[in-house]
Structure formats: structure tokens, C-alpha cells
Write a structure and sequence with these properties.
The complex is a heterodimer. Chain A is mostly helical. Chain A is built from 15 helices and four strands. Chain A has a domain of 245 residues. The longest helix of chain A is centred in the last third of the chain and has 28 residues. A two-stranded antiparallel sheet of chain B has the order 1-2. In chain B, strand 1 and strand 2 form a beta hairpin. In chain B, helix 2 crosses helix 9 and helix 6 packs antiparallel against helix 9. Classes of the chains: A mainly alpha, B mainly alpha.
Chain lengths: 358, 323
Amino acid sequence: MLYRESGQFKTGYAADQAVFPILQDRWGMLVMLAVAFIGVPMIMDDYWANAVFIPFLVYALAALGLNILTGYCGQLSLGTGGFLAVGAYSSYKLMTAFPELDMILVLVGAGASTALVGLLFGLPSLRIKGFYLAVATLAAQFFLIWLFYKVPWFYNYNATGQITVPPREALGFLVTTQNATPIVKYLFVLSVVTVFAIAAKNMVRGRVGRMWMAIRDRDIAAELIGIRPFKTKLMAFTVSSFYIGVAGALIFSVWLGAAESGETFGINESFLVLFMVIVGGLGSILGSFLGAGFIVLMPIGLKNVLVDWFGMSAVFAKHLEITTFGVLIIFFLIVEPHGLARLWQIIKEKLRLWPFPH
Amino acid sequence: MLFFMETVISGLLAGVMYSLVALGFVLIFKASGVFNFAQGVMALFAALTLVGLLSGTTPFTHIDNPAFAMPAWVAIPLTIVVMIVFAILVERFILRHLVNQEQIILFMSMVGLAYVLEGAGDILWGSDVKVIDLGLPQGAWDWLLDGYGLYIEKIELVAAGTAVVLVAFLAVFFQKTRIGRALRAVADDHQAALSVGISLRSIWIIVWSVAGVVALVTGVVWGAKSGIQFSLSLIALKALPVLILGGFESIPGAIVGGLIIGVGEKLAEVYGGEIIVAIFGRWYEIDPGIFSATENWFAYVLALVFLLFRPQGLFGEKIIERV
């Protein structure tokens, strides 16, 4: 009754090819954006910003990037942590080398340099496929982490080997370091993520996205109908790395404020982001957000339940949390291998028929 | 020259250890097409269980109770039983539900399984570093040290010996026994195997049990070398380049791949810095120490370069692509 497209007639090609062809979707999206931009800042404080919203948004961005590569183009990558590190370290170098640079330009620069690195590590994908490629991308992960730890130039020769963010502004608002207000930080990250999500949505439904999906579904057949695998795969690697690089820069500069290559961007990050993509739904923009929300919020929820309600010791709760995390992941994969996005689709189908089931 | 020999030999021996881990992967991949990322954690879990039984630790409390301490000849079979039960649980609760899913889903469920086992091992047996005492010899091989000046650790030779025995055993098991033939049939073609009456489920349980035993051996050998602790589970990551170098489906591949990676890694560690300086030293000031701590990635890059020329690995089955 509420969610139904009957009576909504399309009178032109533009209407037919709109991002959200159904009126209710358009309104839903607007309400969501209004809540995110106006409602959420009203309850924003340090805890909510740093523990929930900012991590959710930056991981959603990283998941978007990986989803483009793995979900849309079908190239399994385990090097996400390494690419996040490239984004973080290049943003650090840009911030310290050009103190006047606006944060937006820093992000673009960090994304661009990560895209270059991604392009380089994407080259083997032309010959190597499937799990062989996944393991090959681990080379990127370990090599990049080692590089940032070994070459002092990347952390400006400081003694600790850590990088710490300097205070920087975006369009005149301070967005980094402790002194920035949580609302400004949140809105900055939210705007960046919104822009990138819209761009991704449009990319994947356009020519580029169709090329990616053709390669994913059957690469030889795609080649036969005139899609160049070389160009398409490398494009996926480049775009995906750009997204991940920006996410890495945001993780370092806005969220954490300090980073150390091995600690912050280890192999575990790669798996976390891959979990988000898979739990959320491969090949779905919405899924990237749902997956990121699930993976970011679940440990917080679990910890609260185990420690506060059941009064377990923190160490025991930590171990139980790891186990529960694993169990939930397996449970999800068994119950819905196509992810949360697929669940949402099922709900929508049901809503269309509701309240008459047939 | 002596130093070079020593480097190569210790590389070979380290390679044998990698092969041991890779072997567990190959077994499961051949039989069920599952890329078992949890193999490293399985090694950790098996070793923890063995140590717990040997020292009579009560599960969940982490308190040693010498009254319950078991001799090795009871503890080892009991650990194997635990691994078999684990295999049955994995089949019952995971694999059975994920038949015919895409490979990436299976892979991620194995990563999930790794999390579960990691947490379970910590909860059951505690997370402190443990020492395993099975009377495996420690220290250098005196005879070689005195006679030829070669420094080789006894434990590495024991590991190599164990690996040889294990591989021989597995080869016989796979080639000569009835179960082995069934396993190879399943590896060749699931459906054909099903149609001649081979039960996929029991095959999976057997394969996971065998992989569990391999994990136990791996855990004990690695644990005797570096103590049983969380880092043991990371050896799975070291086995991956070995796997892609050798080819996922090949047992000889796992062994040869392990040896190549072991030697290559040691040589890069020892001589890599000098070579870099010799080539680029003319133009840049380079610290010879730059090439240290490369063991984390060198194997991967070696495997990557290798794959560019042979995408299916050394012994992998030729990839035939059709539309």
C-alpha cells in the first residue's frame, strides 16, 4: 500500500533512467539525507562521532571502493589495508609539505596517489585470476606496510615512526586534530562520503559499470563482445584505489589523528573491509553502507552487552567477542550469501504486494 | 661459501616448515574446493589443546592441575580425537550449508571460522605463551658444527624428517587406500563421485580430520621452535605464497614451493641489501640494512613475479577457459 509504483507513469527517457525511479525511494533518500545532515548533528558529541558515526562513514567509503573492485568487477583483493595506508601516508606528506593546502585538495591528492599505486598492483590481474590474484594482492598489503615502516621519508624522519596529523582546514573550518568540533568533523566526512557514493552509483549504472559487470560475469565472453579486459580491469583498480585512498586519508586525518603503518593498516583491516562488502552484499552500493554499519556497530554492541549486562571481565569478553564475530559472519554467509542488500530487496518485494500476498 | 651453504640449508629447512602448513591447505582444497584460511589457526588450536592436555590444564580456568597431566601417548591421540570432532562440527555446521556457493563466500566463511577458533582457543586454554615439551631436541647439531662449522638447529632437522614422513604417509594414503581413491575421485569431479556412490559428507570429514592432524604436526613443530602463541596462526599467511607458487591442487607443488620460498627468503634477507647497494650504490647513498625484515613480503613478491609467467603455479592444473 505504502510502497508501490503503480500509477507512477514515466513520460520520458530521463524519468525512465533516473537513479531512483520510484517516488517513495526518492523521498526516502531525501529523508535519510536530511536526518544525516540535520538530525544527527543535533545529538553529536565526541563519543558518538569518534566511536560510531565517523568510523561508520569512513569504512563505508572503503567498502564502496572495494565493492567496485570485487563486487562489480569481480577481482578479489586482500590488499585494502595497504591501500588505506597509501592514502593515509600520502595525505600526511601532502599536509606537511603544503601547509596551506585545503583538506579537500589533500583528499583528492591522496586518492590520486593511491589510484596510481592501485594501477600498478592491478597489472598482474590481467594474467592472474581468482584466488591466485587474491594472494597476489596480499603482496601489495605486506610490501606497502613494510615500505612505510622502513623508509623514514614517509613519516618525515621522526623518531617514533608514527604520523600525527597537523591542524588543517577545509573551506575555512578546522577538521583535523582534537580541537575540531565533532559536528564539523562529522559533516565533513559525511559530505565527502555522500559525494563519492553518488558518483559510484552513477558510475556503476553507466557504461563503465556495465563493462565491469560484464568482465565479472564472464571475462572471455565480455572480451568477445568488444570490452577490453586490460582497460576495464585497470580502471576498476584505479577507481577502487582512489576511493580506498580517500578513506585511508580520512581514517588517519579526521578519525584517528595518528597512525602507524603496521598497527593501523594491517591485514586485519583488509579482512574487515572485505567482510563489510560481503555481509552487505557484493555489487551493491547500499550494501556497502549496510555492511559497514553492521561490522562497525556489532563489536560495540557486543562489548556493551557482554561487559555491561553480563558483567564479564574485559579480557574474557574480548575473546568471546572474537568468537561471536566469527559465528555471526558464518551465520550470515549461510543464511544470506547475497548480503544485507538482498534482504532489503526482499523486503521491498514484499512491501509491493502488501497487504495482499498475491 | 660456508656461510652461503648455511644460508641455503637453513632456508631449505624453513621451507619444509612452510610446506607443512601448505600441505593442509592443499588437502582441503583438493577435496572440497574450499580455500581453508583457518589452517594456521587450526595449527594453533591443536597445539594449544595438546599443551593443555599435557600439563593438565582445566579448560576455561587456565589453571594447571598436575594431577590431570597426561603422558604424551595419551595426549596426542586425544588431541587427534579433538581435531576429528572439530572436523565433524565444521562439516555439520558450515560446509553442509554452503555447498555450491561461490568460492569467495566459502573463503570468507573460513576467515570467519578462523575468528571462531582463535577466540575459542583463547577462552579454553588462555592466551599466554606456552612451551611445548615433547622432548624434541633443541640447540645446534654438534656433529656438523664441529666437523664442518655448519650451524644447523636440531629442531629444524626434526621438522624436515617429520615432513618427509608425513608426505610419504599421505602419498601412500592417497594412492593406495580405498579412502584415498575416493578422495581423489571427489577432487576430480564432485558430481561424478556422488553418482558412483561416494558420500561427499564423509569424505569431507575425513579430509578435514587429516588436515587437522597435519595442523597438529605443524603446530607442534612450529610451537617447539618459537613457543605456542597467537603468532603461530599467522603462519597461514606464510603458506599462501607457497601455495600459489606450487599450485593450489598439487601436493608436490606445496613441497617444492615451500623449499623455493624458504631459500629465496633467506637469500634475500642475507644478500638482498648488498645486491641493492651494489647496483644502486653508485648513485644513491643506501643503508645496507634497508633490505632487512623483508620476510613479510618477499615471498609474496617472488610468487607474484613467478605467477606472471605461469598463472597456474608450478604444478597446478592447466587453466582452460571457455565461454
